Amino acid sequence: MSSFRVKGGLKLKGEIIPQGAKNEALQILCAVLLTSEKVTIHKIPNIRDVNKLIELLTDMGVKVQKTGQESYTFQADNVDLKYLETDDFLKKASSLRGSVMILGPLLARFGHGRLSKPGGDKIGRRRMDTHFFGFQKLGAEFHYDSKKEIYHIDGKNLKGAYMLLDEASVTGTANIVMAAVMAEGKTTIYNAACEPYLQQLCDMLNRMGAKITGIGSNLLTIEGVKKLKGTEHTMLPDMIEIGSFIGMAAMTQSEITIKDAQIHRLGIIPDTFKRMGIKMEFRGDDIYIPSQKHYEIETFIDGSILTIADAIWPGFTPDLLSIVLVTATQAKGTVLVHQKMFESRLFFVDKLIDMGAQIILCDPHRATVIGLDRKYPLKGIKMTSPDIRAGVSLLIAAMSAEGTSIIDNIEQIDRGYQYIDQRLNALGADIVRID
After folding, report:
1. E strand or H helix at 30, and its extent?
2. Do residues 325 and 367 lie in contact, with contact meaning Cβ atoms separated by under 8 Å?
3. Which one of 79, 273, 353, 429 has the largest count of C-beta atoms within 10 Å of its C-beta?
């Protein structure tokens, strides 16, 4: 298990380029299974979860070629379906939650799929019902071996259908869309997720020959086609990393420019951080954040305490609530952070409390943060990263703290942020990786 040794109290300065979006990459990479032709993808982040998915696709028989630092070509013209029956496939797929999205393409193109229960962050219950509800509406037969925790899906004759999803699941919507693009007839998905990453997937599929309308809304209509062709696709910059850098700049009093942020695709993320009192300037598609000694949390119009809660897009993404929480510890003012979607994602606050933060964990979903306005800096401690987003939040806390911190289990951070230590050290941080 690797660790970070972080020297706190240093101000950063310079420009940083966000990586390609992790959550988009997991969808787009699964979509290469929908065609036998070559698919070229740019801006692929070099992170653990993405690399494991590329390795899984390679084991399935997909021809993978790296053509540049962040560019690959994929060609799924000889997929080994027998590999899906092996224990090696089940083991590798179960270690990566994003692997569930290979089911839609497998059903669409080959008529069946098999997968063990996916893993991923331990942030609470993340049920699979939406995925399988959609597959069943399209005519697939679903079987679950509860003893071995293996899903078997037979979808030899998928037919278009109307469906109202019980939740606007991003991965669920992506999976159903990929299954429906080659189903016979018309599919209508209401209460569909409409995140920018899902829009990117739909746009890519349309370039491949799919017929999807309603992109960007929660009502998607898909006319099934018999075959898809190859295409070229470029990932969006990772909005979670962009939000993390905004919070980091404020906490460390740093002057940072986030390059090519594609601001128009960030939704309410910049405005939410502005409500935390963080100043920023939009310079074209770059975000400039000046060094700030103080930043003050707004209240609601009636003077009551600000609440920041997660919501489905275009609401505030749950992946950035931990960043908001840690950033608030050194602000002036109070904020209630309400994590609605996952009941275990706030359990890292005990580490922040040990560092000196004033936080009341109201229940598994809510925490009240009382900003200290830098009067009482956080103190460096030894801690462990419980998941990707909490891990980066703890890294930000350590960078702003007095003294030195040790963060264990940084493999969690590596799953979502590429070369994060090297990139931040280039701006003036002091982060040492200890193996």
Report:
1. helix 22-31
2. yes
3. 273
| pLDDT (mean) for 261-280 | 98
Q: Which three-class secondary structure state does DSSP give residue 180?
A: helix
- 341 labelled as ligand-binding? yes
Would the annotation count 22 as a binding residue? Answer: yes
Report CA dihedral (173, 177, 183, 187) to the nearest 10 degrees.
70
Closest CA to 388 of 189, 223, 268, 240: 240
Does the annotation place 239 within a ligand binding site?
A: no
Interatomic CA distance for residues 266 and 378, integer angstroms: 30
Q: Per residue in 98-118, is it b (16+ CB within 10 Å) or e — as a string?
A: bbbbbbbbbbbbeebbbbbbb
Condensed to tens digits (0 to 9), the pLDDT of residues 138-193 reads 999 988 888 777 888 898 889 999 999 999 999 999 999 999 999 999 999 999 99
One CATH from 3.10.25.10, 3.65.10.10, 3.30.1460.30, 1.10.20.10 for 3-19+237-434: 3.65.10.10
Residue with tokens 């920023």: 280
Q: Average pLDDT for residues 380-394, to the nearest whole number?
A: 92
| Residue 207 is assigned to a ligand binding site | no
- Measured distance CA(41)–CA(29) in Å, rounded: 8
Structural contact between residues 10 and 383, judged by C-beta atoms closer than 8 angstroms: no
> Has 154 been labeled as part of a binding site?
no
Query: How far apart (Å, rounded) are the C-alpha atoms in residues 342 and 116?
Result: 22
In the block, which residue shows the tokens 């078997």?
152
pTM over 0.85: yes
CATH of 22-234, one of 3.40.30.10, 3.65.10.10, 2.102.10.10, 3.40.50.720: 3.65.10.10
